[in-house]
Amino acid sequence: MALVLERFSGSEPGPHVLITGGVHGDEFEPMAAVRYLIALFRTHPPLRGTVTLVPVVNEPAFLRGSRVGDDGLDLARTCPGRADGSPTQHIAFELSERIRSADYYIDLHTGGTRLRVLPLVGYMLHPDPKVLESQRRMARAFGLPIIWGTDPNLEGRSLSVARDACVPAIYAEYLGGGGCDPSGVDAYVAGCLRVLADVGVIADAPVASGALPIIVEDSRPGSGHMQVNHPSPAEGFFEPVVTLGQPVHEGQILGTVTDLLGRESRSIHANSSGLVLVLHTFARVESGTSVAVILPTELAGDRP
Ligand SMILES: [Zn+2]
Question: Does residue 303 have a pLDDT over 70?
Answer without folding.
Answer: no
